[in-house]
Design brief:
Layout: E1 2-4, H1 7-15, E2 20-25, H2 31-44, E3 49-54, H3 74-84, E4 88-90, H4 94-97, H5 115-119, H6 123-138, E5 142-146, H7 150-163, E6 168-172, H8 192-197, H9 200-213, H10 219-233, E7 238-246, E8 260-268, E9 271-279
Parallel strand pairs: 1-4, 2-3, 2-5, 3-4, 5-6
Antiparallel strand pairs: 7-8, 8-9
Pfam family, one: Pantoate_ligase
Organism: Prosthecobacter fusiformis
Binding site for (R)-pantoate: 60, 152
Length: 281
């Protein structure tokens, strides 16, 4: 596996790389990220290259968010990428990605108005901008993203569609701890007491899905199940949002027959955790 830190080196690598499967990350990697790289390796076989990126993107952090304290663990991240089957890791500095006088940014105006986008104004504009830049630089044929951030996945699919990037996007199921908590780089922010309560997020979602599978289709009833479970089992958490939406358009649903998504975000002091569950027959 090779490490590339400059655009010049990356472009030279790309000229002879052939087909490329790409996994963009912000580092602080865990087994959820490793699963994305392993999936890319499986897709690539022996005929394609697996590329990953490690870049903490300042454009997607708000002024009161955790950009400065976001964990940077490059040495450990590289070991994870290599063990999972990456051929190349692109790990540039901020000045390598963004010019000091940059004046162009991509804005998404529909899918980003709800869920995390409503709570974090400008976040997905930063995501779209950096992903577009990485796609232009790496020029992948395929890219793999996790379903944990379902809104991000939907927006990136829209980005590819609307801007005609020749990249096929693949969504991988959320990788979880043994107790159901979605793996996240921000889980390390949790105190022991918060960590003990955090699995209630997944348990609440599963409880609502079980009710839906038993033909409870009303959104108010399904969301009430989640609110009640969290009120009883996640007392240290503060709800940001809990929403029932169409999993393609992300628009709110009052009744869900199929193609639904329940998504939530909960604050635990220093950690903001997200999770979701599909309602698909």
């Amino acid at each position: 596996m090779i490490l590339i830190e400059t655009v010049k080196e990356l472009r030279a690598w790309r000229k002879s790389a052939g087909r490329v499967i790409f996994v963009p990350t912000m580092g602080a990697l865990h087994d959820g990220h490793a699963a994305l790289v392993r999936e890319a390796r499986h897709m690539a076989g022996t005929d394609a290259q697996v590329a990953a990126s490690i870049f903490v993107n300042p454009l997607q952090f708000g002024p009161n968010e955790d950009f400065d304290r976001y964990p940077r663990t490059l040495e450990a991240d590289l070991a994870i990428c290599q063990a999972a089957g990456a051929d190349m890791v692109f790990a540039p500095g901020v000045k390598e990605v963004y010019h000091a006088d940059r004046s162009i940014q991509i804005r998404e105006s529909s899918l980003s108005n709800v869920l995390c986008g409503a709570s974090r104004p400008g976040h997905f504009d930063g995501v779209c901008t950096v992903v577009a830049k990485l796609f232009n630089l790496v020029q992948p044929d395929d890219a793999v993203f996790g379903k944990k951030d379902y809104q991000q996945l939907a927006i990136i699919r829209r980005l590819v569609r609307d801007l005609n990037f020749p990249v096929e996007i693949h969504g991988l199921e959320t990788v979880r701890e043994d107790d159901g908590l979605a793996m996240s780089s921000r889980n390390r922010y949790l105190s022991p007491a918060e960590r003990a309560q955090a699995p209630a997020l997944r348990a609440a979602l599963v409880k609502a899905r079980d009710a839906w599978q038993a033909d409870v289709t009303g959104g108010c009833h399904l969301l009430h199940i989640i609110h009640q479970h969290l009120a009883e089992h996640a007392t240290l958490g503060r709800k940001d949002y809990i929403a029932l939406v169409d999993r393609h358009t992300l628009q709110p649903l009052d009744i869900v027959q199929n193609d639904g998504l329940i998504a939530l975000a909960v604050f635990f002091d220093k950690a903001r955790l997200i999770d979701n569950i599909e309602l698909v027959r």
